[in-house]
Automatic annotation (TrEMBL):
Biological role: NAD-dependent lysine deacetylase and desuccinylase that specifically removes acetyl and succinyl groups on target proteins. Modulates the activities of several proteins which are inactive in their acylated form.
Catalytic activity reported: N(6)-succinyl-L-lysyl-[protein] + NAD(+) + H2O = 2''-O-succinyl-ADP-D-ribose + nicotinamide + L-lysyl-[protein]; N(6)-acetyl-L-lysyl-[protein] + NAD(+) + H2O = 2''-O-acetyl-ADP-D-ribose + nicotinamide + L-lysyl-[protein]
Active site positions: H105
Protein residues bound to substrate: Y52, R55
Cofactor annotation comment: Binds 1 zinc ion per subunit.
Domain of life: Bacteria
Keyword Transcription in annotation: no
Residues that bind Zn(2+): C113, C116, C132, C135
Statement: the UniProt record of this protein carries the keyword Amino-acid biosynthesis: no
Organism this protein belongs to: Paracoccus pacificus
Record-stated family: Belongs to the sirtuin family. Class III subfamily.
The protein's name: NAD-dependent protein deacylase
């Protein structure tokens, strides 16, 4: 069975990592949409690096939960062909044992040179003046897809959805595009859709089946 799973911040919530839109969705009184942008980085690179340095430390201190582990089991099941796509930038899927994770919004453990495009493993704490290992220019940014930037792997994701037997979204509010449009894309290709979430998402009507509850209960039950 070909399955495409899309995860969002809700799958890491029970590992202690904050989601974007639960609670007040603010960080140092900034809306995430105002920090996770190229304009914010141009205006105040130190603020943006502070945001991601904090989240990198939080992610390294967190542990995968039962939902991450259940998806890793699903990926190892030879009866299924799983494409795991995440909007998350933490590495909890990988640390749970998922072999191939498509990080469509980038990853905290990556650094990117804003001048030459070189990528390298991110240190725990980064600052814009860190020289690029390739061009030596002080233009270091997190390797994160910000608002207004093109997400990664879109062609591969859409092709996998079109050919899938099931599309399942877990722990995402369905408010950020193009990820929020994947369920409608599945429906347009007559692919069954399933949503596992704690609350109603913005694109809940796009799903043919929905289960409500915490991911650490729903995902192991669904995978079993
Ligand atoms: C782009 C950076 C184009 C990483 C993020 C239509 C089409 C295309 C684009 C747009 C469009 N309309 C608007 C846009 C622009 C924009 C957008 O969508 N804006 C929104 C706000 C309206 N999209 C973009 O800019 C994208 N780029 O389209 O480029 C382009 C074209 C040509 C050339 C160049 C570019 C880029 C989007 C990526 C932005 N980066 N973050 C980071 O800092 O982490 S988005 C950010 O939101 C995170 O990546 C996060 O993953 C993502 C989505 O949030 P969720 O994961 O859903 O988290 P949220 O807190 O919202 O919800 C949590 C859910 O979990 C809730 O439902 C809750 O109930 C549930 N939950 C909580 N606890 C649990 C739980 N569920 C289960 N168990 C629990 N215990």
């Amino acid at each position: 069975m070909k399955i495409v799973v899309l995860t969002g911040a809700g799958i890491s919530a029970e590992s202690g990592l904050r989601t974007f839109r639960d609670g007040d969705g603010l960080w140092e009184s900034h809306r995430v949409e105002d920090v996770a942008t190229p304009g914010a980085f141009r205006r105040d690179p130190a603020l943006v690096h502070r945001f991601y340095n904090m989240r990198r430390a939080d992610a390294r201190a967190a542990r995968p939960n039962a939902a991450h582990l259940a998806l890793a089991d699903l990926g190892r099941n030879p009866a299924h062909d799983l494409t795991l796509v995440t909007q998350n930038v933490d590495d909890l899927h990988e640390r749970a044992g998922s072999p191939k994770v498509l990080h469509m919004h980038g990853a905290l453990d990556g650094a990117l040179c804003a001048a030459c495009g070189h990528r390298w493993p991110a240190p725990l704490r980064m600052q814009a003046t860190d020289p690029c290992p390739a061009c030596n220019r002080p233009a270091t940014r997190p390797d994160i897809v910000w608002f207004g930037e093109m997400p990664h792997h879109l062609d591969r994701i859409i092709a996998a959805i079109a050919a899938a037997d099931l599309f399942c979204a877990i722990g995402t509010s369905g408010q950020v595009y193009p990820a929020a449009g994947f369920a409608a894309c599945a429906r347009d290709h007559d692919v069954p859709t399933l949503e596992l979430n704690l609350t109603d998402s913005a694109n809940a009507p796009d799903f043919s089946r929905r289960l409500t509850g915490p991911a650490t209960r729903l995902v192991p039950d669904w995978v079993a």
